[in-house]
Amino acid sequence: MVADVDSGEPSTGADPTALVAAFETVSSLLVVGHDSPDPDCLASALALRTIAESAGVETVDIVYGGHISHQQNRAFVNLLALDLDRFDPAQLDTVDSVAFVDHAVPGINNSVPTGTNVDVVIDHHEYETSVDADYLDLRTGYAATVTILLEYLDGLDLEPTPELAAAALFALHRETIDFVRGPTMREYEVAARLLDLVDEELIKRMYGAMFTPETLDAIGEAIRTREIRGSALVSSVGRVSERDALPQAADLLLNLEGVTTVLVFGLVGDHVQLSARSVDSRIDVGELLRQTFADVGTAGGHDNMAGGQLPLGLFADESADDFELVAFVGDRIGSRFFDAMNLSDPS
């Protein structure tokens, strides 16, 4: 039951009826989102829950690790009154089946122990490591995981609830940055089908979520500390507790005239978090981050957006004050990134 990951089209084994058949002997399902889940992950989880319940699964729990800190993501959860729980590894021993949506490998961007058996994986990302599941649908030709799940619903003649429709439409907008970043015709078609099912005012309220003061300060710091070489920019948000401030800063800085590739880093806990964006068709920023930081942490993503996480202790003494840490880490992060892009120090 594996999808064709090259074309993005599902094989005959990966289809709605096969997924329903996989659930027919299951009474409890744990849908695990990735750490700090975004709307695409959460909307996909809601869609999978709809499919599982239609197949007779009695208990479907949606869980996640990390924290939901992005203000729009918090508004998304609160306005839709989503029933979510924090992931506890002990839950793995109490359910019949475990599913991943919008991520695929235990221990990579999730809190599930490495080596855990996962029964269902549905995702649109590409992975260097092998992906294994009893039911696997991995379509890198899609711009969002929720698109795959909504096609499943359509194939099963299941209409999304108003809650799911709103979640899915907002997820499509966020995942593609309002249909600017890499949408396919599939995303447009799915969005068009959702329009008559959603409360437009609810979508506006999700978009209207305000920045937290910390996020605003982080974006300001990223603007202040930017370094540009050629069309590439590297910047720091300093030390933050809101990890989602990094991609927001990266998205904003990509609008700077003459800049086509952005890397933003910040200190979050005992790690250096990375967020990268690119609109340069010659650059696969996911592969660029993998090659640049594979020896010191985990990094990767898509051709136009990527992220990473590096242990802070590999770069600097964590006992130093934050100003020294950020400066020290910034020199090394920036040097690695610019060198990988063959952009020498202008001095």
From TrEMBL:
InterPro entries in alphabetical order:
DDH_dom, DHH_sf, DHHA1_dom, Oligoribo/pAp-PDE_c-di-AMP_PDE
Q: Which residues form a coiled coil?
A: none
Q: Can you give the residue ranges of the DHHA1 domain? A: 231-312
User: What sequence ranges are listed for the domain DDH?
Assistant: 29-167
Q: Which GO terms describe its molecular function?
A: nucleic acid binding
Task: Cite the Pfam families for this sequence.
Answer: DHH (PF01368), DHHA1 (PF02272)
Could you tell me what this protein is called? DHH family protein
Species the sequence originates in: Halogranum amylolyticum
